[in-house]
Amino acid sequence: MASKTSLVPGSAKHLASDRPIGKIEPVFEFYDAMPTGVSVAADGRIFVNFPRWGDDVPFTVGEIRKGKVVPYPDATINTFDRTRPGETLGSVQSVVVDAANRLWILDTAAPGFSTPVVGGAKLVAVDLTTNKVVKTIVLPSSTVLPTTYVNDVRFDLRQGKAGIAFITDSSISGPGGIIVVDLDSGESWRRLTGHRSTSPDPAFVPVVEGERLAAREKGKPPAPFNVASDGIAISEDGATLYYCPLSSRHLYSIPTALLLDRSASDAAVAEAVADLGEKGASDGLEADDKGRVYAGDYERNSVRQRQTDGEWKTIAHDPRILWPDTLSVASDGYLYFTVNQLHRQAQFHEGRDQREKPYTLFRVKIDAGPVLLK
Length: 374
Hints:
Layout: E1 25-30, E2 38-40, E3 46-49, E4 61-65, E5 68-71, E6 92-97, E7 102-107, E8 122-127, E9 132-138, E10 150-156, E11 164-169, E12 177-182, E13 188-191, E14 207-208, E15 211-212, E16 214-215, E17 223-224, E18 229-234, E19 240-245, E20 250-255, H1 256-260, H2 266-271, E21 274-278, E22 285-287, E23 293-297, E24 302-306, E25 312-317, E26 324-329, E27 334-339, E28 359-365
Antiparallel strand pairs: 1-28, 2-3, 3-4, 4-5, 6-7, 7-8, 8-9, 10-11, 11-12, 12-13, 14-15, 16-17, 18-19, 19-20, 20-21, 22-23, 23-24, 24-25, 26-27, 27-28
């Protein structure tokens, strides 16, 4: 005879639920503009950036000091002047501290994902000892297309006379690709433009917080949100570049030697791309000095770690991880990452902004250090 059960509201002491993984520690809370990038210097200084996507952004690059975010390196450079686009900051998507203790600022010069202001897309290096700009490389129209949105950057200072930078083009309306920059001459060139590995996956259907992520306007059907190559990381030996489209769950890699070889044909470069399989849907990527790669997983409120044997391990899973954006390995043995609720922006909800402040900078212990190629 079957047993009888009854459901009395509030009678259960415990119901099974999704289990968190790892211990994430809040580092800083943002109550104003929405952050994307973060980078932590060897001495612990933390730098962040705020792209001009629609929020009130008085400064697009800042440093966290004594519980506040202040403009960095100063307020003047953060005031965009369209008559001097190469000297002022338009809309910064990424900040990265290199092995020579410089903060590199990657300026899209494309507020609101507009066409980049001519002469404005650039890399700007700030010496963290003097807090002064020491180098500016304006990217030419041959590498910054009218559809280009420069997204994230990694460095190998051992290459050439002054080092090489690798940048992802995460266009939402044109071809993605990898931009390579010679930090000495300032010369730049594109690789893998429009290649499947730098393009949105046409079969990709993202689901975040139980809902398909799509651009939604009142009275119109949902439109796919297609973003090209976005996350980027470089291996601890500098031999491999990892990257991924935002609109995909796959991780790709390419030997950096081929990206640097100007004589290599586009076909040869394309042939060398490796599809490393699914990792989850990611915005940012990062790598550590133990040969591991990190990826956010914005569909599963998680951060994952790729082991040296290729196996993925979830190191952080928490309902507070609402769109992990940029990842930064610091010298203190932690992985820092911004959480900015990107998917709750008004464009995805028929004009209703569903973000809840504060946005958060978290960290999780990984017992490894950053990749330093110098």
